[in-house]
């Protein structure tokens, strides 16, 4: 296709914007052209192009040998990705919904995540496990979770959560090239799919050229001096919406997008809190034993961390499964108003 | 299309999905802005008919002179999405 | 031989289920046109309709009593109708209402009606192990009830299914596994994901009977199910049935089915098990008037359920915090609301 060969420097496409799904796919396609060892396995990833457009158009370019529809057998194909990775290939395996991780969890946390360690570093598992995450469209308890904290808790996996098209592409390049297993969690609501409209924000300008975003580099999506809001995924955009509203009342919120949970960029978070003295952590995962508690602990552990910390608030899904009906789902998934309220509380407003 | 206008229309009818009786669509995504240079075949935008998503390629080399239908706009089959000033 | 009463009851279940899916389709698409937004309209989220699967639900459940257990997958409505799940409360659940089977917490993939021992899982093949457990309970308590696990043909490649076959077999449990083969696992045709065309052959590896009903035919399903369920009732162990059905409304509502040929879609439309059963009814001397009555009473029942459901109140947001536990650890609610909400009151 002509547009793929065009030099971005002279073409008009340098100022093009992409949806997050298209940016992800562009990175995957690039890596597949560069390296024959990269291939993609999952359910409905070939003809369908991924239920959430994660592989849209790849079958046409790369064929069925490299864009592989597999049986509904998560244990087998995720485990096969582990084995192929250990044999030197660079597989990408997709879990259609992250909620299905339970079906193949042993291969994920006992094989994929541990083989490097258990082999004393003799074995590498250079694979990517992609999965769709998140709620906000009433798909109920078995199809709406993020489970960010679950993967980040278990050692041996790098965990990536993009919030924009630009980040999604750079992080995907990195994920495929990384010599360790990377869990790449894309939020359904951010992909830019027509039938699941995205908020303003995830669609960004995306260079045609390859680029990488190093893991462990959080991104300050909005600078502010009064309160630090640390978040990831969909809630980056909800936090930015809250920050805009707070700005009208003279509260200047800084929004830190973690981008990766493993490794975690503690420094950026601590620097921000050192500046603002107030921390609000926002997460679409369950509250207890998760991202919110971890971030607060990392800040508190820092030298003079507790002294710098004037106020802390956590905004997360309470410890209930995701309910189906709209009023209840809206209740448990934090929205911009919940974030606004928490920032005001941290700021000392009533 | 007026005769004194040499701009080229980006016509939704040209790329309408085959397997549908539906005559209404909605613009889902624009990838380029007014003023952007395009080559024939570049993806300009995406619209949706029922749940079918359609990518709209530039019909000619040129510059996007005017975007007529913005994101979330609903339209009838055959509506003009944009005008391109050919090179 | 199948009795006229059985034929009529199966017909009633099947036309009710079909009518139900057609009406839900209409309701679901409200607010989703021309732009299909999955979270809009009176029924949000995914909706997997079972039009074309009716013969399987009716032919099997015709043999079941309320104390027999059924587990259903993400496409459960036709099975629920045939098992006698409360149609009004099921509909209220699908509309996300307070008086729904699960008070609006479950939705259409997670229907639970303990009165008739019906449960669902939205995760492929994961309803199989609980059905084995129901069979185990029946054996331990020495009752004559049985358990039936319904699953799709895409699920027969899952460990949960294969492990369940083995456990049920080695323990001689009264369980019947019913595979509904609609040819498609979302976009993946059967021959792409398994080399075994006849899924009932999976039974061979566990030394249990496996039968495939090739035609989308309620009477043939009824006959095959009678043998399998009879075997379970006689405490002779589990069986596997595979039943050919057809998918007439896509994997989920709004599925563009771009991967599926027009011929395949047209063939699924042609092979209508309801028409077939209607011919069987006539062959058994049932007249037009009776058939019309069965159809119109099904229509009325569906309409009544939908109207009732739409009048029901929505749950309160705070209800989300209840029902995590049967015995909540402490306090009135199971979970803490969001911090910000705690501070703005609402300690109910």
Automatic annotation (TrEMBL), chain A:
GO BP terms in the entry: organic acid metabolic process; sulfur compound biosynthetic process
Tree of life domain: Archaea
Transketolase-like pyrimidine-binding domain segment(s): 18-193
Chain ranges passing through the membrane: none
SMART domains: Transket_pyr
Signal sequence extent: none
Keyword hit for Thylakoid: no
Name listed for the protein in its UniProt record: Transketolase
Originating species: Haloterrigena salina JCM 13891
TrEMBL record, chain B:
Alphabetized InterPro entries for the sequence: 2-oxoA_DH_lipoyl-BS, 2-oxoacid_DH_E2_comp, Biotin_lipoyl, Single_hybrid_motif
Needed co-factor(s): (R)-lipoate
Pfam family, one: Biotin_lipoyl
Keywords per UniProt: Acyltransferase, Lipoyl, Transferase
MF annotations from Gene Ontology: acetyltransferase activity; lipoic acid binding
Residue ranges of the region described as Disordered: 1-22
Residue ranges annotated for the Lipoyl-binding domain, each copy included: 22-83
Gene Ontology cellular-component annotations: cytoplasm
Database matches in PANTHER family: DIHYDROLIPOAMIDE ACETYLTRANSFERASE COMPONENT OF PYRUVATE DEHYDROGENASE COMPLEX, LIPOAMIDE ACYLTRANSFERASE COMPONENT OF BRANCHED-CHAIN ALPHA-KETO ACID DEHYDROGENASE COMPLEX, MITOCHONDRIAL
Protein name from the UniProt record: Biotin/lipoyl attachment domain-containing protein
Originating organism: Haloterrigena salina JCM 13891
